[in-house]
Amino acid sequence: MGTKILGVGAYLPSKVLTNYDLEKMVETSDEWITERTGIKERRIAENETVVEMALKAAEKAIEQAQIDKEEIELIILATLSPQLGFPATACLVQEALGLENNAMAFDISAACSGFLYGLDIADAYLKSQKKKTALVIGAEKLSSIIDWSDRSTCVLFGDGAGAAVVRYEPEDPSDVLSSKLYTKGKEWKILYRDLCGYLKMEGRKVFKEAVNGMTKSSLEAIKEAGLTPEDIDLVIPHQANFRIIKALAEKLNIPLEKVYVNVNRYGNTSAASIPIAMYEAIEEGKLQRGMNVLLTAMGGGLTWGSMVLRF
Ligand code: ACO
């Protein structure tokens, strides 16, 4: 009996902002950005709101799940760039989806770990049988909270959304084998945003915390799933920086060929990055049913953690 991931969707805005475009905006270079981060370009939501991006990703996930949208009883939306102070962006997405069933809907603020936190909460709701079908969304319009004159942050981030439909199936084994999620509030100052301000980050400190936290929680989640790193068929890490991803793969002793990477095309889309990567990996045939999949992320809070799926 367990939680099944029935469908995954994603949406990326069409406007591409390349490193060469950024060279014209701040004192930086394609060479510096590529070498330090692996990012070549990112998407910018010029004409889309965060709700519109979330809606498009959700619609795709619902279509892939082949369910009636009115079956959704729980909407969890992870974002650090919400549409309004309140209500939750999840409420606006419920309206945009045209749901008439008063499905419980709320946002969570766990920065780049938000999708994993959301999936874990949904899994707990479903396994306790309080709800049967949930929609988990990660959606970000980070371009609206970035200081475009600060070269140390503006080169890193992008916009986009991803979503998954999950359902409790009493007869089927769970897709979620394990989860290990953590928070370290005492380090919040290395990555935060004031109300109405810009995102601020101490990059070097976040880098170290990311590699350590993602590695440790990955090993814990793999062990809790009754597996070893060799059993993992695909790693889908939060896409913040290729150097972080590479260091993680080395520490886990998992070859890079088994790690999904799209940070070069989208930069860091925070809570949206894992569901976007899952969607693309499915489309490319790299993520297939029956695989052991490791999801891992680190973000402001600090929040971090890992989950193992038998997809
Ligand atoms: N272009 C050119 N030079 C730059 C740029 C830029 N865009 N940004 C910074 N520099 C300069 C700095 O001013 C510094 O110059 P100095 O030596 O003269 O002082 C030099 O480059 C080195 O800067 P560092 O910050 O030390 O560079 P580092 O190698 O640490 O790379 C980076 C910076 C890419 C930000 C890295 O630290 C990183 O990726 N950190 C992790 C970020 C992350 O993972 N965030 C995830 C969570 S995000 C979330 O939750 C929302």
Write the layout of secondary structure elements.
Layout: E1 2-11, E2 15-18, H1 19-23, H2 30-37, E3 41-44, H3 50-65, E4 74-78, H4 89-97, E5 104-108, H5 114-127, E6 133-140, H6 151-154, E7 160-169, E8 176-183, E9 191-193, E10 199-201, H7 203-224, E11 234-237, H8 242-252, H9 263-266, H10 273-283, E12 292-299, E13 303-310
Bound molecules: acetyl coenzyme *A (ACO).
List keywords for this structure.
311 residues, five-stranded mixed beta sheet, globular, Peroxisomal Thiolase, Chain A, domain 1, 2 domains, alpha/beta, 10 helices
Describe the protein's architecture and organization:
It is a single chain. By secondary structure, this protein is an alpha/beta fold. It folds into two domains: 2-169, Thiolase/Chalcone synthase (Peroxisomal Thiolase, Chain A, domain 1, 3-Layer(aba) Sandwich); 176-310, Thiolase/Chalcone synthase (Peroxisomal Thiolase, Chain A, domain 1, 3-Layer(aba) Sandwich), CATH 3.40.47. The chain contains ten helices and 13 strands. The strands form four sheets. The chain has a five-stranded mixed β-sheet, sandwiched between helices. A four-stranded mixed β-sheet has the order 8-13-12-11, sandwiched between helices. Helix 3 (50-65) crosses helix 4 (89-97). The protein is globular and about 55 Å long. Residues 28, 32-33, 36-37, 111-112, 151-152, 155, 191, 203-204, 206-207, 210, 240-241, 244, 268, 270, 299-300 line the site of acetyl coenzyme *A.
